[in-house]
Write a structure and sequence with these properties.
heterotrimer; A mainly alpha (286); B alpha/beta (327); C alpha/beta (320); B: 327 residues; alpha/beta; Rossmann fold; 8-stranded mixed sheet; 13 helices; globular; C: 320 residues; 4-stranded antiparallel sheet; 9 helices; 29% helix
């Protein structure tokens, strides 16, 4: 049994393109940082004056401390942790809701389809960033991170819904759907068992992309100080570093590490997303 | 039980071609009427060239498409009314077999699942074990078995094997009628005859009737009891196949029979081609007139009547043929 | 006209090479219609590509060579592409593989002119093309149409007109009528035979439809799983098939007017990756004997011009 898994894994690894491999490696790195290394973090990284300020990197403080008296390294780790949780949560719900609504609308058609599409199109046509900025400036940085997440989910589910709806529309005409109908499968069973598997690999790719979008959206807000400033996220770390003029103070690690981390995470997710698309295309023989 | 297993009366299906402001109505199926008697099971072949409306006709009989006008009666029940015959009862009586066996099953699901689903829903099975038993029995009657099929996906079978699995699945509900839309079009010649022989066997052993839609006339004439010929949406001839083969009454049937590249006698010449295909669909006069060697002014100016001929036959023609010989 | 000398072809795949054509040797003569028959996976389309020299990755010629002999000289595999359109031409299954969708039909004819003959003035070229189309009984208004405006049958006829326009010595047709209706098919086949009779060139037709071969070919080669298993004059093959596969294939064909029970061939063609030992047809053959699985039967000349590859063909000749 063990041998099978090893052989399977090796075969899959071999058939992956370089882009996907690099992307996955980077994402894996961040997963380790954000969830494994995180386990060792001391609590309350955001606490001000935890330590002496502006210490140089040492074995006690790997990246030193910043002007707020926080340990930069553990702050970074916590930020990665929180950003990733946010990204994954938003991506999961947005993709799940979007795909379900889209498949349902596409398969059932008629009035149901028109209503759902109307809602989707309305949300899509609202530019999300200005709304988020508006809301953020009203709440002035006191919004809970979970409210932000909820709003991001709201703005992000229509995209996968539209896509999966068009997939459902084409799949609906295929003969295996008719076979399923004559085999006694009801509507919901057909959507779940016949149509969904064909949409799954696309959904996975979309999920990865949405993580990127979500983290990016929150970071954009955070950098402007409009996110939940008391929660450590990558964007917030940049915000506070700018507030305290970290560049002027030559606190490179404080401002540099979240910027580099964000960029690297984005690159990793992007490579994974496009690499995965290429991989599935190659598998289908294109 | 009604007199006729299947009765189709004046069945018509129109499609709009063109845009919103200016469009034409095209009749994919135009006033088709025929009936299959109850009592003895029979195989009806619906033949015609591509685009003649045979697939649209089968979709309407399978209730996958609604007719624009006309009626279909299955054992006396009106198919167009959902109240007269509930979908569940309908699926129990009528089952399909599709042209492309690889598309008839999802590539992501084990093929056996479709059989067990059918067994659970329509075959009276109450547990997984019972469902598998029923699937096994059905597979055995087409020359396969549960062991051969279990755990496999559609791509792991050959076209011929997969089509047998489709047939087995259709048998599970003990239907009255199986509708096969070009079931052997994608299968090699050496295997076509096996599948088509299977239809005969099922008709004789289980008393199930078939509607066999095909453009392959050799197998149509080989296996069927009745033949219906469609041309541009109209039914131009209907009757027992042996008699139609010996004495086609409609010039188009005669043309078709002589166009099959058969082994035996060689052709000597080509045949007049039709160019105005879409236009012919919208004609209300005889659609075949422009190519018919026997056409006269009547054919190009009025709608031909459906003439009843002896022996339960009918032909849509002003001057049905008798003893036309070879082309 | 064309000689195949021990030709073998394979496809390179991630998991190794798949042999699609094995050691095929035969000749095609001038002024004949030659048919290549067989079912899916037998290698006939691959053989045609090797003959016409459309050998692109992942297909490669793994052994032997094809030699084309025309009035202008001799060309072997690798150089045959020089003779395309001019001395040999190709009619594919799908007309749209040849027709450019963004040019009108007349432009595509003129292109042929410019490439292979001296381009003349448009009016002169148009006259020649119109004259040719009238000879073939094709309506002249196809010239001003775009390919998508024509029906499938008409497109195929236009492609045949283009393929024969420069009067090549050899024309290859790969399943030319498979995608078309029966009535159109008869017309196109008659058009091809008419052209051959007029031009006295060679026509090679690949088709899985034995009826088509019966109707129009003079000589016929039967392929099974990459091997040529029978070869000879068409009428002879149908009257007295030597190889069990040919025999069973012909027996499986229903004839219009004859409703007697027919038997198909059980099983499926073997996988080309893992062919069975010895004769590849043995697993499905009614007449197989233990010797059949030991060695691959060689194509032997039974009578002048009549070949078959079966160990037991002499014994079977007398019987059923």
């Amino acid at each position: 049994m063990n041998n099978n898994y090893k052989a399977n894994f090796r075969q899959v690894w071999k058939s992956m393109n370089l882009r996907l491999k690099i992307g996955l490696a980077i994402v894996l790195l961040f997963l380790i940082l954000g969830f494994v290394v995180y386990l060792f973090s001391p609590g309350n990284v955001m606490g001000l004056s935890n330590f002496r300020k502006n210490l140089k990197p040492s074995w006690d403080h790997l990246f030193g401390t910043n002007k707020q008296g926080q340990d930069t390294f553990w702050l970074l780790i916590s930020s990665i942790h929180m950003s990733m949780i946010l990204g994954i949560l938003v991506a999961f719900f947005a993709t799940a809701i979007g795909v379900m609504m889209g498949l349902f609308a596409g398969f059932v058609g008629g009035a149901v389809d028109r209503v759902i599409m109307f809602v989707c199109d309305s949300i899509i046509s609202i530019p999300s960033l200005p709304i988020l900025i508006l809301m953020g400036s009203v709440l002035k940085g006191r919004a809970s991170i979970y409210i932000i997440a909820l709003i991001l989910i709201l703005f992000n589910w229509p995209w996968p819904a539209r896509q999966s709806r068009s997939m459902a529309l084409t799949l609906r005409e295929r003969d295996f759907i008719n076979t399923a109908h004559f085999a006694g499968e009801g509507r919901f069973k057909i959507i779940a068992v016949e149509i969904l598997p064909h949409v799954l690999s696309w959904s996975m790719a979309n999920f990865v992309n949405t993580i990127l979008v979500a983290i990016g959206a929150e970071a954009s807000l955070a950098v402007l100080g409009l996110s939940s400033t008391t929660t450590p996220t990558l964007g917030n770390m940049i915000y506070w570093a700018r507030q305290y003029q970290a560049i002027m103070l030559k606190q490179w690690l404080w401002i540099g590490s979240p910027v580099v981390a964000t960029a690297l995470l984005f690159i990793g997710l992007f490579l994974t997303y496009t690499g995965y698309n290429d991989y599935t295309a190659a598998k289908r023989g294109r | 039980m009604a007199d006729n297993l299947l009765e189709v009366k004046g069945l018509t299906r129109e499609f709009r071609i063109g845009g919103f402001l200016s469009h034409k109505k095209m009749r994919a199926v135009d006033g088709v009427s025929f009936s299959l008697p109850a009592g003895r099971a029979s195989i009806l072949s619906v033949v015609g060239e591509s685009g003649c409306g045979k697939t649209t006709l089968t979709r309407m009989i399978l209730r996958l498409l609604a007719p624009t006008s006309g009626q279909i009666l299955l054992d006396g029940h009106d198919l167009t009314s959902r109240r007269a015959l509930k979908e569940k009862d309908f699926c129990r009586m009528v089952q399909p077999i599709f042209q492309n066996p690889f598309d008839a099953f999802s590539a992501r699901r084990e093929v056996l699942n479709y059989l067990t689903d059918t067994a659970r829903c329509y075959g009276g099975a109450r547990s997984k074990a019972q469902a598998e038993e029923k699937a096994d029995a059905a597979l055995k009657s087409v020359g396969m078995s549960l062991d051969v099929v279990a755990g496999k996906y559609a791509t792991q079978f050959s076209g011929g094997e997969l089509q047998r699995v489709s047939i087995a699945r259709a048998l599970i509900t003990s239907p009255r009628l199986i509708i096969a839309d070009e079931p052997v079009a994608m299968i090699d010649a050496s295997m076509k005859i096996n599948i088509v022989n299977l239809f005969r066997k099922i008709r004789d052993e289980y008393g199930i009737s078939f509607i066999y839609v095909t453009h392959d006339l050799s197998t149509a004439y080989y296996v069927s009891d009745y033949i219906a010929t469609l041309y541009r949406g109209s039914l131009v001839e209907f009757g027992p196949s042996r008699e139609i083969m010996e004495n086609p009454a409609h010039p188009y049937t005669w043309l078709l029979m002589n166009s099959v590249p058969h082994v035996g006698e060689k052709w000597k010449s080509g045949i007049q081609m039709s160019e105005a295909e879409t236009r012919e669909f919208t004609l209300s006069t005889c659609k075949f007139a422009s190519r018919c060697p026997y056409a006269d002014e009547r054919c190009a100016s009025a709608r031909p009547p459906l003439k009843d001929l002896p022996g339960g036959r009918s032909a849509l023609c002003f001057k049905p043929l008798s003893n036309p010989g070879k082309l | 006209m064309m000689r195949l000398e021990d030709v073998s072809g394979q496809y390179k795949t991630i998991t190794g090479a798949v042999q699609a054509v094995n050691h095929v040797t035969f000749e095609i003569r001038d002024d004949e219609i030659f048919g290549i028959a067989g079912e899916s996976g037998c290698g006939k389309s691959t053989l045609l590509k090797l003959m016409y020299d459309i050998v692109r990755f992942p297909l490669e010629l793994s052994g032997g060579r094809v030699v084309l002999q025309t009035k202008k000289g001799e060309l072997a595999s690798g150089e045959i592409s020089k003779a395309w359109w001019d001395q040999i031409s190709y009619v594919p299954q799908a007309a749209m593989s040849v027709l450019n969708p963004v040019y009108r039909i007349e432009e595509q004819f003129f292109e042929l002119f410019r490439r292979h003959r001296r381009g003349e003035g448009r009016r002169a070229m148009r006259e020649r093309v119109e004259q040719y189309l009238t000879e073939l009984e094709l309506p002249l208004d196809v010239l001003t149409a775009y390919p998508h405006q024509l029906s499938g049958g008409m497109r195929q006829r236009v492609v045949i007109a283009m393929a024969t326009f420069l009067q090549p010595d050899m024309i290859f047709a790969d399943e030319p009528t498979t995608a078309l209706d029966v009535v159109v098919q008869r017309n196109i086949l008659m058009m091809l035979t008419g052209l051959q009779q007029k031009m006295h060139n060679t026509l090679v037709i690949v088709s899985h439809d034995m009826g088509v071969h019966y109707q129009i070919t003079n000589r016929l080669g039967i392929m099974y799983s990459g091997n040529l298993v029978e070869l000879g004059p068409t009428e002879e093959i149908f009257a007295h098939p030597l190889h069990p596969y040919t025999r069973m294939l012909i027996a499986a064909l229903p004839r219009v007017g004859d409703r007697s029970e027919r038997e198909g061939i059980a099983g499926a063609p073997p996988s080309l990756r893992n062919p069975p030992p010895g004769c590849r047809f043995a697993p499905r053959c009614k007449y197989a004997c233990p010797g059949c699985r030991e060695s691959v039967p060689v194509l032997t000349e039974v009578e002048p011009g009549r070949f078959a590859a079966c160990l037991r063909m002499d014994e079977l000749k007398g019987g059923a």
